[in-house]
Amino acid sequence: MHSFEYKNGSLFCEDVDLQQIAEEYGTPSYVYSAATLRDNYTRLDEALTELDHGIEYAVKANSNLSVLKLLADLGSGFDIVSGGELKRVIAAGGDPAKCTFAGVGKTRDEIVYAIEQGIYCFNAESEAEVAFIDKVAGELGKKAPVAIRVNPNVDAKTHKYISTGKSENKFGVDFEFIEAAYERASKLENITLRGLQMHIGSQLTDVKPFIEAAEKVAPLAARLKELYGIEFFSIGGGVGIVYSPALASGSTEWWESHTEEARPLTPERYAVGVVPFLKDLGLKILVEPGRYIAGNAGVMLTECLYEKKGTAKTFKVVDAGMNDLIRPALYEGHHEIVPVKEPTKQTPHITMDVVGPICETGDFFCQNRDLPDFAEGEFIALLSSGAYGFVMASNYNTRGLPAEILVDGDSARVIRPRQSVDAILESEIANL
Ligand code: LLP
User: Fold this and answer.
1) What is the ipTM of this complex?
2) Where does the record place the Orn/DAP/Arg decarboxylase 2 C-terminal domain (predicted)?
3) How far is the CA of 401 from the centre of ligand 1 (A)?
């Protein structure tokens, strides 16, 4: 589950009071729970015990070095999408030999770097890319391990910007062409066909699309094993999390109050759904979870700067903006908002928009939401912000990147200090 709950009238992350964190380190700040990260990893790992499997954590979800190190220490492999991410994994003590390299547009430099570091496999997304990897490997006098990503044309039924497994999406080789692509790839001299990969989308809350994809693609994996001796089948990431009610969903009672059928996706239900199609393949099964591992392990803290009552609405202006957490603006993503100081029975609820300081109408964290009131100077937490939160932050409006803090039990460590505006300016060249 997760480790954020009210204790003694204040929101805690494990044994650390978030009020203290906000006062000591300032806002906006991201706070992660080490216990939740470990728990999520272990729970998925255990759910898949029936399979010869490996977890390739999707680095893009949260790539802080301390988060990667924590996962590397648990034995995780890593799914990377750039040379930069590979460099991060290595810096964090991760093993390149447990890395898969995804993405539709790998450059020559990235391919060279990944071959030199000895990654486990490139997950190629087009025949042109397979040919290019072969060429670059040849120039280096090496053989590169390659899997091809198949696009199974399955509807993941998630937001259109994070759906990837339909033919109209740019990802992978169409199911109809994949066998021919392997056939041609098998003739190339400088690659070894090591696996098959798919990923149908992100934030899936229903197991059915996963089942549909596994059922459709498993026979293909079996054929490719027979024909080309591939050793793994990666079924991608995508397991969704509960964004609402995020806080309540951390408690055992909340799960118990839902019938098995009504329960949101869990690693166990995911495993029960897909394992039957995979267990007899004789292949190593890889999964690439990002959000499931990191999403509910983090919150973003921000301070309420001003309240503005207009004719139409009440706005709470906070010190975090869409540059710090872009999910609401980009995907209409819902993040539950709770005051750090626990509301009492007397606290009135009001309908509000929580907005940031950025000069854009899309700079909001919620609109017309009924929330317990909070005052200027008080802190609030945006829950389930551990995945695709900090990593998508930018310097828009010349705002320094927020701080990141890792809580483990009763200790809190800054794992990324707040970026100063001076640091932003120093990275530029004034050609006056
Ligand atoms: N594997 C591949 C090849 C992927 O493209 C992705 C995510 C993953 C694994 C991990 O998916 P996850 O387990 O996290 O669902 N920024 C968006 C999400 C983009 C996901 C991109 N690909 C968001 O904030 O919702």
Assistant:
1) 0.99
2) 31-386
3) 22
